[in-house]
Amino acid sequence: MANDSKTWRCGKYELSFDRPRIMGVLNVTPDSFSDGGEHFDQDAAIEYGLAMLDAGADIIDVGGESTRPGFTPVNPDEEARRVLPVVRALAKEGAIVSIDTRHVAVAKAAVRCGASIVNDVTGFTDPKMVEFVKTSTCGVIVMHAGEVAAPARTHATVQLDTSAAAFVAEKAREAAVEAAREAEKPARRRRGKLLGEPKVEAKLPGGVVQPSLPLGESEPAPESEPETPAAEQAAPAAAAPETVPAATEAAPEPSDHLAAMMRRSARREEAYVPTSQLRRFTLPDSAPIMRRVMGFLSDQARTLIHAGVSRDRICIDPGPGFGKTANEDIVIQRETAKMASLGYPLMCAVSRKRFVGAVSGVTQAAARDAATFGVCLGAIQAGANIVRVHDVAGFAQFLNGYWAVAEPQPRRAFVAVGSNLGHRCDNIRAARNMIAEIPLTCVSNCSRIYESEPAYETRQDTFANAIIEIKTELAPLVLLDELMKIEAELGRDRSKKAKANGPRTIDLDLLWMDGETHGGKKLRLPHPLIGERDFVLVPLEDLMHDPARFFRYNGVEVKEPEDRVGHIVGELGRM
């Protein structure tokens, strides 16, 4: 569980799993089952997405089509109009954004707007979606949406008759049936195989067979659904979503297999079980269920790999609630360790689902967060790497408390310290001593103290600057809060009346933490301005060899010395 060696490459980001990652749910829909359309307004959705980042989310999953039981399908134009401005705004703030869609046109437009992950609830069974992701660098989430129960067997009533006449009559009937079958058999092939009805399967380039989604038998529908020309028009919406005319939601389409499956799933969940079908065991047998779920996930992951998607871009999700009853979902969750053994990052996306309500006795979806946390904890202990939740702030607090006790995990981090008011060097040394007192944190090394020109706001006194290397077991946002407390205690004024980049008694910036990438208004990791600050890069040379090369390797643009700000002009002594 701890120090999981899997990594997940998502565009320009790389997620490590030495700690479980939190995906926040952002539904830009009017009819989601859990939030009732609270974030349908785009400005409200952007604000809420940023709030989730500041509360501890590592990824924001943006969706524009509700897939709750009985959902109404949304056409791609309308879905793009809902999600693209939100994706663009969050990506601009450094967020790792996932686009939750089954429409390839929406996925393409969202990735152009900055999305780093495509979360396809239909498991990449659309060859066009496979074609798209193989040409991009985004991460992909393969989800299983389908029915897992074995078809019910019907048994005819058998009446035994031991008389010789009955035996002869039965043999005659069997012979007649066999003769009729022989007469109806089609012509044989050269090698003796019967020419039956061919099974139609989509083929990807290279001869890879693309299976169909395991949705079971759909409700009566046309043999094929005509392709909507408007779907191909969603791509221009990425460049100017405001020009896309507001489309109305599509009417219920009986040919939409996912919608039909979700309706059947809801009916199955509510169906009365007659006494003749009562089970002998509390749960159904796990073997056939897991063969279907794990078989589909493995097959789809291999299909993507054969098409050209690298293995380290693939994450899998068993799709709780999608075509599954409460009993089946519990069976699948109990087998989390088996799914984790497939070797791909594993998603636990159980937040507020029906089966969580069934096991907790909570009817209202929005009230199921505590029960969700319990199910998620069980999944994490069994090997789940990413937890998709609605209540990010609550789960981050829950996870931080659990992880601090269950998983000792000191990580390296760098804190920049600066001062240009009062006794500058004394302020820096006081900050160092207070950092050493932060819980689960120690100071492992310090640079020398340097004098630098003021940056950004040049009409002020020169600064004293240093870098403190620490080891900490705190989550980045928790550590940042502790640093802000130290600033306040040493007299730093962060009120609105204070001048941005102006004089200060102390300034503490969390620059970098091992294995952490973060976006949002409150904290950006790595610090977005590292590469242009001479007063940061020069002191770092005391602590590591070639910091410019180190940060470039971690995806940070580092400027040449002459192009930087806040140049070092002297040395003021040791810490």
From TrEMBL:
- Keyword ATP-binding appears in the UniProt entry: yes
Positions of the UniProt region annotated as Disordered? 179-255
Membrane-spanning ranges: none
Identify the keywords attached in UniProt to this record, alphabetized: ATP-binding, Folate biosynthesis, Kinase, Magnesium, Metal-binding, Multifunctional enzyme, Nucleotide-binding, Transferase
What are the EC numbers? 2.5.1.15
Output compositional bias ranges, type Low complexity. Answer: 227-255
Q: Which reaction does it catalyse?
A: (7,8-dihydropterin-6-yl)methyl diphosphate + 4-aminobenzoate = 7,8-dihydropteroate + diphosphate; 6-hydroxymethyl-7,8-dihydropterin + ATP = (7,8-dihydropterin-6-yl)methyl diphosphate + AMP + H(+)
* Cofactor requirements of the protein: Mg(2+)
Cellular component aspect of the GO annotation = cytosol
Record NCBIfam families: DHPS, folK
Name of the protein = Dihydropteroate synthase
- Gene of origin? folP1
